[in-house]
Amino acid sequence: MTEKKIPYKIYIEEHEMPKEWYNVRADMKNKPAPLLNPATHKPMTAEELGEVFCDELVKQEMDNDNRYIPIPKKIRDFYLMYRPAPLVRAYCLEEKLQTPAKIYYKFEGNNTSGSHKLNSAIAQAFYAKEQGLKGVTTETGAGQWGTALAMACAYLEMDCKVYMVKCSYEQKPFRREVMRTYGADVTPSPSMTTEVGKQILAEHPGTTGSLGCAISEAVEVSSKDPGYRYVLGSVLNQVMLHQSVIGMETKIAMDKYGIKPDIIIGCAGGGSNLGGLIAPFMGEMLRGEEEYKFIAVEPASCPTLTRGKFAYDYCDTGKVCPLAKMYTLGSGFIPSASHSGGLRYHGMSPALSQLYHDGYMEARAVEQTEVFKAATEFAKVEGILPAPESSHAIKVAIDEAMKCKETGEEKTILFGLTGTGYFDMVAYGKFNDGEMQDYIPTDDELQIGFNGLPDMSDIDE
Amino acid sequence: MTEKKIPYKIYIEEHEMPKEWYNVRADMKNKPAPLLNPATHKPMTAEELGEVFCDELVKQEMDNDNRYIPIPKKIRDFYLMYRPAPLVRAYCLEEKLQTPAKIYYKFEGNNTSGSHKLNSAIAQAFYAKEQGLKGVTTETGAGQWGTALAMACAYLEMDCKVYMVKCSYEQKPFRREVMRTYGADVTPSPSMTTEVGKQILAEHPGTTGSLGCAISEAVEVSSKDPGYRYVLGSVLNQVMLHQSVIGMETKIAMDKYGIKPDIIIGCAGGGSNLGGLIAPFMGEMLRGEEEYKFIAVEPASCPTLTRGKFAYDYCDTGKVCPLAKMYTLGSGFIPSASHSGGLRYHGMSPALSQLYHDGYMEARAVEQTEVFKAATEFAKVEGILPAPESSHAIKVAIDEAMKCKETGEEKTILFGLTGTGYFDMVAYGKFNDGEMQDYIPTDDELQIGFNGLPDMSDIDE
Q1: Buried b or exposed e, range A187-218, using 16+ CB within 10 angstroms
Q2: Model confidence at B216, in pLDDT bands (50, 70, 90)?
Q3: Residue limits of the Tryptophan synthase beta chain-like PALP domain (chains A, B) (predicted)?
Q4: Does pTM surpass 0.80?
């Protein structure tokens, strides 16, 4: 097949869309470590997890064996509303860079939630609905996950209670209004609607909240009403599973045109996008069928993979959720006020952490000013204003393309463009005004987070 | 062809994309009236227009004869960046409404400018560049047109000077930052950078500006520097021509699947979207080949077609631009502070005005609360948060679908979904809070606008 025939945008046909999710854990020799009960340090049982997640999601969370999980028809119908997502050949960027590299990106931002989060939101809401539940609760910081969940719940006519970190609630009123337009009940956190919220407000009357506090409120509300479950937009095995639709579609599109990527790049916060994008390619590598170079890109201000520890840790700052074995900076790590939004998480998907630990993946940390520089360059030639998170992947994709320019290699580079930056213009404004600063935590600062890791000496890791 | 085979989203192939724009004026028996010099009331000559627009655009503006105008390769390359736009079968909306009607919409919002404006922005910037000009100037209110022009200029590496109405500049900082990210020079209007701006600021020190004032500043800047031309995002014949790409793509997609629309609906402000969407269908009707029902939808607060006069009028409140014969509420008409953004224009494309006058098109005025109700309903089932402008078309499409439900008719309805509402969340917020009000001007209020129409008794209309 000649290169000429590859269009700017590859849309697979609707009948070609994946009918199954791919479960990378089935092909991993070293499985991700189980979630532990934070009180007993014993593996969480299905019953215990069932108090937090609905039953089908518990099964998916614990399933390390089944390679493929069928996507229910109702979820596939919802996917048809905004998928297939285009696989874009970045001809304009290639020309601008004058690189012999061939650059592709899977664009997940062409839906109202503005990111890939919708892929798992609809799945989690669907299984809750199937179980006869009335609704779901969650927290949101930047707001992409909350918006995605609100959209999914509107479609399924379910209740959606979102605890939004108060400073975001006030600073991002548009995100809040999108959620409300989709019928979600959005509460600024901390609030007087929960015991934990009241307690925090009594202790810190002027606080503008934190993600940890919002999680605690969302979990409390779901735990007190058997008609609700708590849902989460990243980190979990089930989320990686649902997000595999990104990679599956990408692979189908590439196979149609005989394209094989040499390098696959994704930004990494909790790992939902990266895990989804690389899933089927990683599967081929784990089965020894193909070789790929995978690169996880994280902010230098929150360097989970590049400078974190591989250890059991709390998933939330409130320490109410199960313990996960993952790369972590410690649940007490406080990232600087960077603009990488969804990437400011102290931990990382246990499955991705294991793969990274076992040497299947590289990681790179990049600073935000160079990320926004790449984002602006990309926006001008490719016509899409990328989310700051996605722009981490753009930065490294450009770096790799420039290496090809030096060496003359015609490598094929694939990266994930997870979303759009329409709600991140405050950050772009700071960059445009030259007021954006970089921040790299010192070893001493990281040590504070590590000091808060739970004592796991009672278990045999 | 069975209905089953029609996908949710029809994307034509890149090689099927239009290579020509369609000029509806070529098929009109009664041509739109020429633009007149506001001082002499004589038709503007090509030379006079050449002081405002670059030469190729003057030719397009005055060309009532050539049915097809080739789209230059460079513009088609740019179109490939964000086109083809999907033609969506609104299966989910149909199911929600339980209507036998088949509803389709052409979605033009999947690009960073958030609307169809990019189709003409790249064309106008391209011809200016071809003529060796350094840049273009324009005004923007809501910001969609300014954003589109900034994107086009960034791609072509041209200067872009945008005068943004000061109140929008302050209330819509995100729009401003998107333009700046694309390298545009954005100035709040009125400003001290122009004579007219200085004069207005001296007279009204605290003013937050108006579109009329911003136009005057943009025109002044371009008139003082031969390296610049002024460009406009709607109303003009050239804009209708460029926007015909919307309808051409739609028709190609429909023809592929043997779909024939019975009713074609578009929102109408200056007419750029409506004119573009209906162009090739209107051509068939004008040539007597097919019958369609065309419906222009406008806000009841700014009822240009339904309650305006068909007369020569000023295109701008500053009265510096040529006179156009069109449906108008008078250049002095001040629409209420509604949220229909781009639809708050006192006039209408001369070509569409003539077609409406000659009975080829219907018009309907709708109130904003019912528009936002339709928008919210649409967003929940179709997953796209529509722009307020576009939602006028949604409202009437739903009305027509509900009529089909009553009569049992299986009509095919096509409407234009011009853009997304991410930058309109203040309006959605007001609607969500029940604080949105409707406003219909009284006859006396409209009379004030009509009183300001120019005295044309010297010419034989």
Answers
A1: bbbbbeebebbeebbeeeeeeebbbbbbbbbb
A2: confident
A3: 82-419
A4: yes
